[in-house]
């Protein structure tokens, strides 16, 4: 049983699922099929709160809708518990790729923290290799079905532990063997990117791409540290950059905005924002603006020229897909196909690929939308 696909949403008479998409912010341990969790938990002797896949999907959604990132993150205890063996990691990674392809994704980056998957006796290198095997099996399965997809790994360090330099070295070691970038994740407040300066120095010296979770559970100082200390090329979420915007006057649809220095830098340098609308509501990242999708500053950032991208964050926890996120945004802000294409082009330009590969991806998106 795959993650729910939420119907075949239509926009201007076109299936959103059929459109080519790019997924940049998608956690491996947040994208398990409920049935897979049940089966792997049975093999590992892990207790699950619900015995049926649909009921377990409901449980994840209910538990995640707390308004707190800390509470939201607790749901990962279950998914990580069933991802401690080579076979478990391979299966989850393979299904991750298949589910992306079923949602129309042609390029994706999967982020996950190897240090959280050593309970079964595997080494850091072995867990990365197991996930890569699963990714390649998924890519092959998709190709045999007549479609194409490519997925790269974002090797992630947990920001509340002290292994970030070791994980950065691991990421660089697997460059060319699946790893395309580095990230830090976990509880953001109280654990700034500056704590991991040694890791970011190592990555910079190796010219290895970095994205950093920032501007989700913490504000502008976290974003500033991601850019200055982390040399981040993208911001994981980054939604709270809107705190550096001062709405001076609003007349109907006309809005005059005064930019702070940080917001202007992010906008003018076209630093991509990995926005995840449903997740941002669940974790309270946009609580300062409201509790409904229409309150999300996504549209304000888009209209002001920020490099916004659309992402799922955690498909299982938010019970979502990229098709669903795009459909929700289109309904909330009356977006057209041209807008949805712009989001995909932003994501393609932000992908941790060579410029030739990004140009090829951009061409595929253009062809898919024009068709």
Automatic annotation (TrEMBL):
Keyword Cytoplasm: no
A GO term, aspect molecular function: metal ion binding
Lineage, broadest ranks: Bacteria, Bacillati, Actinomycetota, Actinomycetes, Micrococcales
SUPFAM superfamilies referenced in this protein's UniProt entry, alphabetically: Metallo-dependent hydrolases
EC code: 3.5.4.4
Source organism of the structure: Microbacterium oleivorans
Names of the cofactor(s): Zn(2+)
Membership in a protein family: Belongs to the metallo-dependent hydrolases superfamily. Adenosine and AMP deaminases family.
Protein name (record): adenosine deaminase
